[in-house]
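Shall we go through a protein fold together, starting from nothing but its sequence? Please make up or recall a protein chain and show it to me in full. Go ahead whenever you are ready, and we will take it from there.
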Amino acid sequence: MRKLRTTEMQRLSVEEYKESNKTPLVVVLDHVRSLYNVGSVFRTADAFRLQGVSLCGITACPPHPEIHKTALGAEDSVEWQYFEQTEECVQYLKNQGYKVLAVEQCENSTMLNTLHLSPLASHLKKVAIVLGNEVNGVQQSVIDLCDGCLEIPQYGTKHSMNVSVTAGIVIWELVKEHLLYS
């Protein structure tokens, strides 16, 4: 086996990326304070060619050197928008036909390992996930507006994971489900 060189991977240019078909998934960052987490989410969004990222509240916006440090330019390819209030963002996405799911530990949340999107499900077309602040998680007022909650099963002593790690896990599972039924 030989590791591939970057030039052998035939990656899209930023212009080709912007013109390409996207996975109908938006990531909403609800008051995420770490610019490195923001950059990492941009990079993951680029990797899976997501529809976009919504930055809300205190979440920093590009351009910013600390976002760029982990995004590595993905902040230039992935569409993004800013909302002062996350609730406004959730309502906007719902009005655009998105099923909005908070990623949070909630009563009656759906465990990610049991999530199976039906090929006939209308919500498969457009999904948005809301990821919360590193300390406080997703605001209750935002959860109240969401169509449901997803939770990642955890088996250790901690009750949470890093925002960017959580984003990667949930994005992959939703993209995988989308690929199965598209």
